């Protein structure tokens, strides 16, 4: 009995599964995202997400991700933790 096709199939499946585990999460545009999407960011819960939306509605769109620190309760560390996920396109 030839086990090569079974072994090759298992290696392929393992490779596919490990590549999905290391995939980067999707970027979030802080100028257009809703409360639920913003709450997906590290350190941002529903109340901070609502504060982001309220700030954006009152002051217009963010020019840079760093401007997120202008929202009460969001510090530089939170922005740093999410730097790869935040966009302002």
Radius of gyration: 20 Å
In percent, how helical is the residue content? 40-55%
Which H/E pattern describes the elements? HEHHHE
CATH topology of the domain at 28-87: DNA polymerase, domain 1
Number of helices: 4
Helical/strand content category: mainly alpha
- The total strand number stands at 2
Q: Under the CATH scheme, which class of the domain at 28-87?
A: Mainly Alpha
The named CATH superfamily of the domain at 28-87:
AF1531-like domain
Q: Indicate the mean pLDDT.
A: 88
Shape: rod-shaped
Please give the alpha-carbon distance between the first and last residues.
57 Å
What's this, in brief?
The chain has 89 residues and is mostly helical. 47% of the residues lie in helices and 4% in strands. A two-stranded parallel sheet has the order 1-2.
Q: In words, what does this structure look like?
A:
The chain is mostly helical. The protein has a domain at 28-87: DNA polymerase, domain 1. 47% of the residues lie in helices and 4% in strands. It has four helices and two strands. It has helices at residues 4-21, 35-38, 46-59, 76-81; strands spanning 28-29, 86-87. It has a two-stranded parallel ribbon. The longest helix is centred in the first third of the chain and has 18 residues, at 4-21. It is rod-shaped, with a radius of gyration of 20 Å. It starts with a helix and ends with a strand. InterPro entries: Competence_ComEA_HhH, Endo/Exo/Phosphatase_dom_1, Hlx-hairpin-Hlx_DNA-bd_motif, RuvA_2-like. Pfam families: HHH_3. Residues 36-55, 66-85 form the Helix-hairpin-helix DNA-binding motif class domain. Residues 1-23 form the signal peptide. Keywords: DNA-binding, Signal.
């Amino acid at each position: 009995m030839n086990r090569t096709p079974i072994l090759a199939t298992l290696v392929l499946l393992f490779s596919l599964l490990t590549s999905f585990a290391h995939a980067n999460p999707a970027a979030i545009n802080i100028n257009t995202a809703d409360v639920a999407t913003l709450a997906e960011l590290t350190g941002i819960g529903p109340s901070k997400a609502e504060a982001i939306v309220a700030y954006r509605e009152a002051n217009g769109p963010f020019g840079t991700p760093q401007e997120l620190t202008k929202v009460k309760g969001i510090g530089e560390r939170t922005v740093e933790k999410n730097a790869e996920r935040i966009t302002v396109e």
